[in-house]
Amino acid sequence: MTDQQPDASNLTYEQARDELIEVVRKLEAGGTTLEDALRLWERGEELAGICQQWLDGARARLDAAVATDPDSDSDSDSG
Q: Under a CB-based contact definition with an 8 Å cutoff, are residues 1 and 26 in contact?
């Protein structure tokens, strides 16, 4: 595990997701010291949070777009 990790606040969703996948692979493979495993776990938690923020932001943007789309027919079920 390297000591230099990209600043999580600057990661794209894809970068955070890919790094999270690598963290999970390393944890599943085992063979690390307890200290390294804890560092990996903490980084994984951070990366999972970043991914969730991106997904929440995307959901909010989609919801806003649907809510302001004059062509959307949200009342079609009631008629």
A: yes
